[in-house]
Amino acid sequence: MTQATIAEYLHISQATYSRYESGGLDVPSTVLIKLADYYQVSIDYLLGQTDHPGRAGSKKHNRNSPGDISKAVPVMLLSHHD
Question: Which string of DSSP letters, residue by residue, matches 10-29?
Fold first, then answer.
């Protein structure tokens, strides 16, 4: 999964997505929700607050599995900033 592919899915530019990953921009809640929906994981999992990717009351999606989420979710989302 490339930055350009995820950026297209999120309807943002690749440059904006890159800034999310690098910490240049905070990730808006709307983007976190879309990423959690896409990968079918919780926002807490994306933010590194839990090791359990499952979601309470998650919706079922008719979409092919995006593959290994550990390689696709931006490292920036998994780290914490002061």
Answer: HTS-HHHHHHHHHTSSPPPH
